[in-house]
Amino acid sequence: MKRRTFIQAMVAGGAVSAFGGLGINLSRAAQQTEAFKLDKATITTSICCYCAVGCGILVWSNPQTKRAINIEGDPDHPTNGGTLCPKGASMWQTTENPRRVTSVLYRAPGSSQWEEKSWDWALPRIAQKIKDTRDKGFETKNAKGQTVNRTTAIASVGSAALDTEEGWLYQAILRSLGMVYIESHARI
Ligand code: SF4
Fold first, then answer.
1. Is domain 42-95 in CATH 2.20.25.90, yes or no?
2. 71 in ligand 1 pocket by Cβ < 6 Å?
3. What residue spans define the domains of the chain?
4. In the sheet that 179-185 helps form, which strands lie side by side, from edge to edge?
5. How far is the CA of 48 from the centre of ligand 1 (A)?
6. Do 172 and 156 meet the contact criterion of CB atoms below 8 Å apart?
7. Which of 45, 74, 80 to mutate for ligand 1's pocket (most ligand atoms within 8 Å of CB)?
8. Measured from the CA of 51, which atom of ligand 1 is nearest?
9. Which of 88, 109, 136, 140 has a CA-to-CA distance to 37 between 20 and 30 Å?
10. pLDDT tens across 63-102, in order?
């Protein structure tokens, strides 16, 4: 039995015993709780997107609409043990926010307008831009004649939403391109 399930069972059992002693029957109330919106929700584990502490979260989502309906700290996560700071506790607003950007937006050079584009359009273009910039600025030797095989024309600022393994994979890909300016920021 997981810690969360155990605590829920203890609380429910304690409440029924306590109120039973007062002659109050909680069985109907217990039946009604079955209709709570979280009962049939899908629970997914994830990590808070805000800072490098990397608190674990549980996301409840509606299986039909696939929309998030609740986010809480994960009590089984070793980093936060179920707690969240106020910023993390408000994370639900990042998923259910009408102002959230959900598609590729492109602003052409010199333009003041954003255009909506598909990922099929964007990904090959990003790859081509990276290759062109890398090839144009690639250095095989430094000023002392030492072999460096690097490009200083591109930099990367990583995200705190990456865990350790993802971060390692990401920097390995960047280094394979010859990039040396690789940084991570805890608040992106
Ligand atoms: S923003 Fe708060 S909840 Fe999120 S990882 Fe940082 S400390 Fe944890």
1. yes
2. no
3. 1-33, 42-95, 117-187
4. 138-141, 147-159, 179-185
5. 6
6. no
7. 80
8. 6
9. 88
10. 988 888 889 999 999 999 999 999 999 988 888 888 888 8
